[in-house]
UniProtKB/TrEMBL annotation:
GO terms for biological process: lipid metabolic process. The lineage of its organism: Eukaryota, Sar, Alveolata, Dinophyceae, Suessiales. Keywords: Membrane, Transmembrane, Transmembrane helix. The keyword Transmembrane applies. GO terms for molecular function: O-acyltransferase activity. Gene3D superfamilies: alpha/beta hydrolase. InterPro entries: AB_hydrolase_fold, LACT/PDAT_acylTrfase. This is Plh1 protein. The keyword rRNA-binding does not apply. PANTHER family: LECITHIN-CHOLESTEROL ACYLTRANSFERASE-RELATED (PTHR11440). Pfam families: LCAT (PF02450). The chain crosses the membrane at residues 51-70. It comes from Symbiodinium pilosum.
Length: 655
């Protein structure tokens, strides 16, 4: 009933209306997920999150949901069936936990086989068969139907016949040189409960983001879960507890290498890289994972958690311990965050701090100029195919209506930090050949698109705290002559509009995958009144079969221009880079191909995917060379250079 009401309230037809008034079960989550699976098949030549994951999720959720539902509603269901669902959902979660906490490829594959066994279990088949009996005329839930090509690859299929990258590189003489600081991207750090309402108390110090605990917490009480994940819309900081409103909810980032080495629905975030670094001699004395609460705006990370201060001290310590300046390895939004950090440290600590402590910045898949997806999330609540979230995004989609989702994403200020940056100068028709957004068929300029979200005339109440960024910081395409309102940090998140510190001996690298279709243009329809539900929604009928988006070259999440423009051209300007720090672009053409490990979890050793690239063998080799003191040849295989020529970097680009 709660769920049905919630979706009625949000007016969202796509939710899991799995209970209707008659008390029959309608496991729409399964039906809802199936088209996504198809879509992943057609729009994404990669297998990573292809058929198997949605199917596993669907199945697990089918069981968990029905079990939870029966327990809470006391439906008059036959006991044997209820028992079977309980057994099924328990063994599912157990196997899933094992799978998700495997920290090497070998153990991943082992647990993946276990998962298959679990899925083939009679109990599960029985439970789902039983369900199909009850849910007559509904989609069949048979295991066999859901997993037509589920197969577990052999280890050699995934890794090739070769040995571990790090072991080979160690033999070739690569050793620890520069201490490595890893800065993870958005979404991918685990978040733990430190204080909360009664409904979540027994998850103390467990993750409500990033493991199956999260799924369990969600299944048990979705409203409670989302209340804890959502920050206060006015402050962008911790919300208060209900019903007394005088204690804050505290959700804090997990710490250490475990915080980001794997993520639900997306294996090997950093696991393989840590393993490779360890193989050439790295350990806690020479590397550090700088995890953070990815929901906060960059400035709030310092304000609430002193993140920059701590990061600075960690770097200083490792530099002292190793007698070498540090190599920063930043993935995805981590690159944007580190850029911001350099501004902060130069302004607050010492103008030479970067010069004295940083040897190189290795940006992996870092969208320094943003990407379209977060814009659409903030506008519509859409989060489907948020690559770093894996299939979990589909689960969020199905649990919460679009208004709830939009509130959740709007409360996460970080999302706005990776919206398309630089306005029409970068994202306009002239450079990309595509508009950023279309409304009912009309192509908008980038400025118009920004204004749909927040304009000088009107900034929505839940975005007012980041007004300066949305109206000024984000839109600039060159370093401004004076900062608005005297606030110097407004432009720090914008690589186009801020100046690199003077560090002539530092080196920068942008490594990223290309050759994967990536969203550039979203088609919007006007569907809501902006009170009951968002005014705009992605028009999934448009641009078939890509469910509302026009695609271009990139790494599945980020268009190639955002990954390479700053390095190739933006930092060639003395205005932004007075020390003329060289930056090397190196692209990795996606070669994962679907055939190699169909049914496996991730993209394999030569994937160019936004996240999977952290396990790309060639990239790992290059990275090990760099941190052990080597260099790297530039390589551009996309049409980045031609696109960069279309970018007119001399104009002010304000319109
Ligand atoms: C599944 O059902 C079959 C027959 O309906 C039964 O023999 C078997 O014991 C059941 N298995 C479990 C684990 O419940
Ligand atoms: C269920 O399907 C059967 C045969 O496919 C059909 O006769 C029946 O009317 C359906 N029931 C409902 C409620 O749709
Ligand atoms: C959010 O913070 C503001 C300002 O501190 C406060 O007035 C408001 O009650 C808070 N809202 C919630 C839902 O906690
Ligand atoms: C919290 O606020 C409520 C309402 O103002 C008050 O009744 C209660 O005593 C407060 N609790 C604490 C622990 O301060
Ligand atoms: C809008 O943009 C698309 C994609 O670039 C283009 O094909 C179409 O012709 C444009 N429409 C108009 C009316 O300019």
């Amino acid at each position: 009933m709660a769920a049905a009401e919630r979706h009625a309230r949000d007016g969202d037809r796509s939710g899991p209306a799995w209970a209707d008034a008659q008390g029959t079960l309608e496991l729409q989550i399964v039906q809802g997920l199936a088209p996504d699976a198809e879509r992943a098949e057609t729009s994404r030549p990669l297998l990573s999150i292809s058929l198997s994951y949605p199917a596993i999720f669907a199945l697990g959720f089918g069981c968990a949901l029905s079990y939870g539902y029966w327990r809470s509603e006391q439906l008059p269901l036959p006991d044997p069936l209820r028992e079977r669902a309980r057994v099924a959902s328990n063994s599912f979660f157990k196997a899933f936990d094992e799978m998700m906490s495997s920290d090497t490829v070998e153990s991943l594959l082992r647990t993946t086989s276990r998962m298959k066994e679990v899925l083939d279990l009679q109990a599960l088949s029985n439970a789902t068969l039983g369900l199909t009996d009850i849910v007559k005329n509904r989609t069949s839930l048979g295991v066999k139907d859901l997993l037509p090509d589920w197969q577990v690859p052999a280890i050699s299929q995934v890794l090739g016949k070769s040995e571990r990258v790090g072991i080979r590189m160690a033999r070739e003489g690569k050793r620890v040189k520069h201490p490595v600081i890893m800065v993870p991207g958005i979404i991918t750090t685990g978040l733990e409960v430190w204080d909360g309402e009664d409904c979540i108390k027994n998850y103390f110090r467990q993750r409500i983001w990033g493991t199956t605990t999260m799924l369990q917490a969600m299944v048990r009480d979705p409203d409670c879960w989302v209340r804890h994940m959502t920050l206060n819309a006015t402050t962008g900081l911790d919300p208060l507890q209900q019903p007394f409103f005088n204690r804050t909810i505290r959700i804090r980032p997990s710490q250490g290498f475990e915080s980001a080495d794997f993520f639900l629905g997306g294996y090997w975030l950093w696991g393989l890289m840590i393993e490779s670094l360890a193989d050439i001699g790295y350990d806690q004395n020479s590397m550090y994972m700088a995890s953070y609460d990815w929901r906060l705006s960059f400035s709030d990370m310092e304000k609430r958690d002193w993140y920059f201060t701590r990061l600075m001290q960690q770097i200083e310590t490792l530099v002292r311990m190793n007698h070498e300046r540090a190599a920063i390895v930043a993935h995805s939004m981590g690159g944007n965050l580190f850029h911001y950090f350099m501004q902060w440290v130069t302004d607050n600590v010492h103008p030479n701090w970067v010069h004295n402590h940083i040897q190189s910045i290795i940006l992996i898949s870092s969208p320094l100029l943003g990407l379209p997806k977060p814009y659409f999330s903030l506008l519509t609540g859409d989060n489907r195919d948020f690559a770093t979230m894996g299939t979990f995004s589909a689960v969020v989609d199905h649990y919460f209506g679009s208004s709830t989702r939009r509130s959740l994403w709007r409360s996460c200020s970080s999302l706005s930090m990776i919206m398309p940056i630089g306005g029409d100068a970068i994202w306009g028709h002239k450079v990309t050949g595509m508009p950023l957004a279309q409304v009912e068929g009309r192509n908008l300029t980038v400025e118009e698109a920004y204004n749909l979200l927040a304009s000088k005339k009107q900034v929505p109440a839940d975005l007012q705290r980041i007004e300066a960024w949305l109206l000024e910081g984000l839109r600039a395409s060159r370093p401004p002559h004076s900062a608005p309102n005297g606030k110097s940090d407004v432009f720090w998140g914008n690589a186009l509009a801020s100046v690199l510190p003077f560090a002539p001996q530092m080196r920068m690298y942008a490594l990223y995958g290309v050759g994967v279709p990536t969203e550039y243009t979203g088609a919007l329809g006007m569907t809501g009144d902006d009170i009951q539900r968002p005014k705009y929604a992605i028009d999934r009928e448009a641009h078939s079969p890509n469910a509302g988006f026009l695609l271009g070259d990139g790494d599945y999440s980020c268009p190639v221009l955002s990954l390479g423009f700053m390095c190739l051209k933006g930092w060639n300007s003395e205005e932004r880079n007075p020390a003329r720090i060289p930056c090397t672009v190196r692209e990795y053409k996606d070669k994962s191909g679907k055939s190699v490990i169909s049914g496996s979890l991730r993209g394999g050793p030569s994937s160019g995917d936004h996240v999977d690239i952290l396990g790309n063998v060639e990239l790992l080799e290059d990275l090990l060379s760099l941190v052990s003191g080597g260099s790297l040849e530039p390589r551009i295989v996309s049409d980045l250079a031609e696109a960069a020529q279309r970018w007119d970097d001399s104009s002010d680009g304000s319109g």
